[in-house]
Specification:
The structure holds 2 protein chains of 2 kinds. Chain A is mainly α. Chain A has 13 helices and 2 strands, in the order ααααααααααββααα. A two-stranded antiparallel ribbon of chain A has the order 1-2. In chain A, β1 and β2 form a beta hairpin. Chain A is globular and about 75 Å long. The termini of chain A are far apart. The relative contact order of chain A is 0.10. Chain B has a domain of 59 residues: Ubiquitin-like (UB roll). Chain B is elongated. In chain B, a hairpin with a 6-residue loop joins β1 and β2. Chain B is of the alpha+beta class. The chains are: A mainly alpha, B alpha+beta. The interface between A and B is large, with 67 and 41 residues. Bound molecules: fe (ii) ion (2 copies). The site of one fe (ii) ion has 5 residues of chain A, from α4 and α7.
């Protein structure tokens, strides 16, 4: 069959909402885009454990500690689901890990910000997981089958993440003056970086057409960002707190909130590796990977030994 | 000068390379396993996902930790992925098409008088 025919059959399937599965023919660029997107999404889940892991030993109660451990454990699982679906496209786990550790592959910039107080655990759950959820709900309908299925599983687990975050802030918002201030401060610091999670403005992400055509992505950065702002601007009222944007205002005509300009210089600086914690995060991952080397080797050696013993018994 | 990513999707942060050369890794990867879960007694095991593990026992333990944290299952199967053989999607037509013209395999093909009642 001619390449054009294959491409036509492929695009027809996508137009008819038929999922693409691992052994189906697909254009190289589709494979590559998916590998990159899925693996970097996986890296984000894995690196995303670090800012929250930072507070496990200092959680204010046993209950909060158990919740935080459960959430961080979920994120490890999300990383695994995603790595697995990228592997169905013909890349290996080791290859992906190496790209993360060498700094070649990116992960979400949001995790390059520090978690300074306990209230950050609330703000991260509410805002960061909240922003991720909007993206991930969209991705449940992405055209590559294994990616979509991983997303469905992930979304089921995510809703607790956002709720526990909001509840953490809710408790603080009803606390002492100091706790209220801590709550507001965390919201102030996390608001803008959360908006940056949706990426550059549509006018600047020139090549997103292809991904939309292939139905890898179904909504634009700006659409998702607006959806997020509309949601959070209402929820923040329940906390009796404010968002740090004096241009934030309901626009009756648009039926959306208007908002102020994102600091794009900061955005690009963090993407390029100059955020507050880029180095720290990568160093932590490298150390964890190196520290685990002997476990990986020992497990393989143990498995081989067991297998040998079994073979000898049979013989 | 600002260089903008041409692509930027969630989980896709562009191709800017900031890191040094990739470190040489000779680590042998743990084998890949497919995980199947019986969600409750009486139902079939269904494919849930995959994971890496050094052996079957570790695969089951890891599957328990990753895929059944919220009572998703009462029983687990793990199969090393290399032992799974799949049909070729390009042959889907010749494999499944013949079933299309055998409508007489379906109960609705037969018209019976109403008096027969439910059959
Ligand atoms: Fe997650
Ligand atoms: Fe999460």
């Amino acid at each position: 069959m001619q390449l054009q025919d294959l491409e036509k059959i492929f695009q027809d399937k996508i137009d008819k909402e038929i999922k693409i599965e691992p052994k189906d023919w697909m254009p190289d660029a589709y494979r590559k885009t998916n590998i990159r997107q899925i693996s970097q999404h996986a890296h984000s889940e894995v690196v995303g454990m670090l800012p929250e892991g930072n507070w496990i030993s200092r959680a204010p109660s046993l209950k909060r500690k158990a919740i935080l451990i459960a959430k961080v454990q979920d994120e490890a699982g999300h990383g695994l689901y995603l790595y697995s679906s990228a592997e169905t496209l013909g890349t290996s786990r080791d290859e992906m890990l190496e790209q993360l550790l060498s700094g070649k592959a990116k992960y979400s910039s949001i995790f390059n910000y520090p978690t300074l107080t306990w209230a950050d655990m609330g703000a991260v759950g509410w805002l960061v997981d909240g922003a991720a959820i909007l993206n991930q709900v969209m991705l449940c309908r992405t055209s590559y089958g294994p990616y979509a299925r991983a997303m469905v599983r992930i979304c089921k687990e995510e809703s607790f993440h956002q709720r526990q975050g909001f509840e953490t802030l809710l408790v603080l918002s009803k606390g002492t003056d100091e706790q209220k201030a801590m709550c507001q401060d965390a919201i102030n610091r996390w608001w803008w970086p959360s908006l940056m999670m949706f990426g550059p403005r549509d006018s600047e992400s020139t090549n997103s057409d292809q991904s939309v055509k292939w139905k890898i992505k179904r909504k634009t950065n700006d659409e998702l960002r607006q959806q997020f702002i509309d949601m959070i601007a209402e929820q923040v009222k329940v906390l009796g707190m404010t968002l740090p944007d004096d241009k934030l205002k309901w626009n009756e005509e648009r039926k959306h909130y208007d908002f102020g300009e994102i600091d794009w210089d900061e955005f690009w600086a963090v993407v390029k590796g100059n955020g507050p914690c880029n180095k720290q995060r990568l160093d932590a991952r490298k150390k964890a990977h190196a520290d685990g080397a002997w476990v990986r080797e020992a497990a393989l050696a143990h498995a081989a030994k067991k297998k040998n013993r079994q073979l000898q018994k049979v013989a | 000068m600002k260089t903008y990513n041409t692509k930027y999707f969630y989980g896709d942060y562009g191709e800017i390379e900031t890191g040094g050369p990739a470190t040489q890794q000779s680590q042998a990867e743990w084998p890949l396993w497919e995980v199947f879960i019986r969600s409750k007694q009486g139902l079939d095991h269904k494919h849930a996902g995959s994971l890496h593990a050094a052996d079957a026992q570790m695969a089951i333990e890891n599957a328990r930790d990753v895929y059944t944290r919220r009572m998703e299952g009462v029983s687990l199967w793990v199969v090393e992925s290399k032992y799974i053989h799949a049909s070729n999607p390009d042959e889907a037509e010749s494999l499944y098409e013949p079933a299309n013209d055998k409508v007489y395999r379906h109960p609705t093909f037969y018209e019976l008088p109403d008096e027969v009642g439910h059959m």
